[in-house]
Structure formats: C-alpha cells, structure tokens
Amino acid sequence: MILGFYNRMHRALDATRIADGLGPLLLRLYLAPIFWMAGTSKLADFESTVAWFGNADWGLGLPFPELLAFMAVWTEILGAVFLVLGFALRWISIPLIITMIVAIFTVHIDNGWLAIAEPQGIFASERTAEAASRLAVAKDILREHGNYDWLTGRGSVVILNNGIEFAATYTIMLISLFFTGAGNFVSVDYWLNKKLRKSEPLYTASTINN
User: Fold this and answer.
1) HSE of 44, CA atoms in CB hemisphere, 13 A
2) Which of 34, 61, 138, 175 has the most CB atoms around its CB within 10 Å?
3) DSSP helix/strand/coil, 116
4) How many C-beta atoms surround the C-beta of residue 29 within 10 A?
C-alpha cells in the first residue's frame, strides 16, 4: 500500500518533466537583465571602467586593465543576449562564472557575505554591527532635517555592505545552468541540438556507467 502510494506520487511528479525547461528558462530570464545592466553601464563609461580595473589605490589594481575591462564588458553583454536566447548557454556560462568569481575575490570578499549590512544573524559581523550604529545616526538626521516618511515611502533606509551574497548567488545559478543547459523547447540550443545532433547518443548515467 505504501509502496503503491509512493509510486503513484512519483508518476505524478514525472508527468511534470514535460515542462522541465521552465526551471532553466526562469534562471536565464532572471540573470539576463543583471548582466545586461552591468555590461552596458561599464561600456557607457569605458574609460572610467578601465581606470577602476587598473588603479591600485582606489580600484581593483588588475594587470592589463584595458583588456580585462573589454573582456568583462562583452562577456556580460553577450552573456545577457545568449541567456535570453538560450544560445550556446553552457559555453557562455563559463566566462560568466569566471567573471563572477573574479568579482567575488577582487571586490566583495573583504566585506563578508551580506550584500546589505544586517546587525544580526549567522552572517553578521563586527563590520555590519558597526554599520547598524551608523544607520541609526543617519535615520536620526533624516528624521530631524528631512521628510522621513516621504524618504522611506518606497523602502527602508539601509547601508550597503557589498559582500559576496549576490555574486555568489549568481555564480550558483550559472553553475546550475552549465549542467542543465538552456532547457527544452524555449531555447535555441534545444532546437539546434534536435536538428544537428539527432544521431549522437545523450550522455546519461547509464551510458557513462556502461
């Protein structure tokens, strides 16, 4: 009886596999505008981007800043386009992942995990606790000298911590897409593979084990 119920539930779950391209599609559509905005904003002021990449005092201090800035800009812009189309997705995921890892270790890691400073929780640190004190002072100033209700009418005042949280999340999403691909039906990759790779066997657990 229990086994029969278990099997019926799994058959019902298996029936949803016809729409299993929905997961990769949602990841793609979530990530695409993020990379598009990141790449186009860098391109719009490319000289400042190059200066930020190369300057060791107030920037990243990277070697070959012109080349690296060029690569970062076009990886993000083309990555956004390829994400929307679901084209060459596993290939474009690789440089996008590298871009995120570089961002984590050159920009965010010294700030800890949190993107927004939070004084409590498992990821709170001395840095974020201090930020909470500063935020309290900032709110007092705004209450005394500004229209606080209007200023916070679209959301609370916060202090940016600029930790690795967002970059790490995007990296995990890209790694997932690297392994799943762009998904069925709603990607260029799906139709190209269907047309061009009909005769090639798919690599599944059974084929690998054999």
Assistant:
1) 6
2) 34
3) strand
4) 13
